[in-house]
Amino acid sequence: MFGTTTLVSKSVVVILILLIVYFLAMDLLLYSRIQRYDVRPTTNGTQYKSVVPCDFDPLCTVTVKGLMLDHPNHFLLSPLAAIMDNLLHISSSWTRLGVILFQARTWLDDLDGHVARKRANIAGERSDVGSNGYIVDGVCDAVGCLALIIGLYQFLVRNSSRRGGYDKLLQLPVSSSIVEPGNGIQKNSNIALRNILLITVHLFLTSATWNRYIYLYQDLLETNYRTPSISRERLYARQTIIIRSLSFWIIVLCWKFVNFHAMMDYLLLAIFFDRMREYVKLVRWSSYVIVLLLVYVTEFHFLRAYTYVRDVSSLIDEQISSTDVFTQG
Question: Where are the transmembrane segments (predicted)?
Answer without folding.
Answer: 12-31, 248-273, 285-303
